[in-house]
Amino acid sequence: MTQGVRGTRDFYPEDMRVRNWLFERFREAARSHGFEEYDAPMLEHEDLYTRKQGEEITQQLYCFEDKGGRRVSLRPEMTPSLARMVMAKAGALPTPIKWFSIPQCWRYERTQRGRGREHYQWNVDVWGANGVEADAELLSVLAAFFRSVGLGPEDLVIRISSRKVLEEVLNSVGVSGKAFPAVCVIVDKMGKIPEEAMSAQLAEQGLGADAISKIRSTLGSQDLDALESALGGGSTAVSELIALFSMIEAYGISEWVAFDASVVRGLAYYTGPVFEAHDRAGEMRAIVGGGRYDRLLSALGGKDMPATGFGFGDMVIMELLATKGLVPELPTGNQDIVVSRDEGLRPAAMSVAQRLRASGRAVDLVLEEKRLKWAFRHAERTGAERLVMVMPEEWGEGNVRIKDLGSGEETDVSFDDL
User: Fold this and answer.
1) Alpha-carbon span 248 to 225, nearest angstrom
2) Alpha-carbon torsion, ordered 274, 276, 282, 284, to 10 deg
């Protein structure tokens, strides 16, 4: 059997080099904004997810009963684990908490472009900060990352709205209580399904023609001034968004973002600003999504704390980078290739390799008898800087021959001076 489980991926060394490159860009963007890295177990109690999101997610969980009779699950996302960790040290952690992680997550769902059953997800969160300053900071982290991998505002856009906009609009047409989440799911499809289909689904929720028209016109707005006219000057949602966009301008990232009232985000626990990044061509799934979720802890049995964050999967961004020709060709990281000319010099070659490694060099020792021509090709293929040759005559004089693969120059160097 040569194929892995459906929906999973193998990472060969060349794939791992690219993955590590991507993850380091994630880390650099977060650390440059003062975030610290954390981690949590891949295995959690099943009810950590079912309590937060209800029964729907149970169809996507990789869950089972362990040998102690406990219901456990592979994590489908990191936020519940983060919430558990914050609750475990409630009151002891200095706020604001600025943490990030790059966990592997698992969901049993239909595989499609940009989505498998396992993926890595960069999570960046701020806990304990009430104002939209924290939300603006997250958007700055995203812009820093996009710049670091060669993407620009012409390649993608971060669309921003607020769940408070949705609440004000839906409340104005009488949608509240249990009907609210169902209507949110429908509104989230705006622009993704035909208008007639959306209107029909809203009608099934008991909404009349006038209410449907107001929902579609207001939540289809991409102009903050027009939204303010529709909701009135006293709108809390509009005031909050105006403040957020002012901070975005202060960060110098206005060209990366746009207001779009139709951005809802699928999870019902979002409470304030929400955002998604999409490629400008509109050919791919959302690259990243997030927002404010101030009431998560109470859903898990704790005391609420203001929080905002995003989840950024590794699959869609790699598709976008490949489309733009921005995936780098990365060398192995080997600096020196050490090769002996005959089997009798193998121990000497081992000593040479160890001496170089002790000096901080990354060294690949050729373990079998190979011709120099092969060693040259191997050095070129792996991107090494030097070929270090242990040859009978030179070694007899206590030297090795080093070829600089950049300049082509060859030099004899004593073993003691390596």
Assistant:
1) 17
2) -140
Q: In this structure, what token pair is assigned to residue 300?
A: 């898990």
Backbone φ, ψ for residue 206 (5° rounding) = 90, 15
Question: Is the four-CA dihedral 267, 123, 52, 284 of positive or negative sign?
Answer: positive
- Identify the structural domains of the chain with CATH numbers, from first to last: 13-40+75-323 (3.30.930.10), 336-417 (3.40.50.800)
pLDDT tens digits, one per residue of 72-126: 999 999 999 999 999 999 889 999 999 999 999 999 888 777 778 999 999 999 9
Please answer whether residues 298 and 261 qualify as being in contact, where contact means their C-beta atoms are separated by less than 8 angstroms. no
- At 326, the amino acid letter reads L
Positive or negative: CA dihedral 262, 265, 271, 272: negative
Residue 2's identity, in one-letter code, is T
Number of continuous H segments (helices) and E segments (strands) in the chain: 15, 17
Hey, what are 365's tokens? 């020792």
What is the reported pTM?
Answer: 0.90
The single residue listed with the structure tokens 């050729």 is 366
Residues with Cβ within 8 Å of residue 76, at least 6 apart in sequence: 49, 57, 60, 61, 62, 105, 106, 107
Task: Tell me whether strands 399-404 and 104-106 are parallel, antiparallel or unpaired.
Answer: unpaired
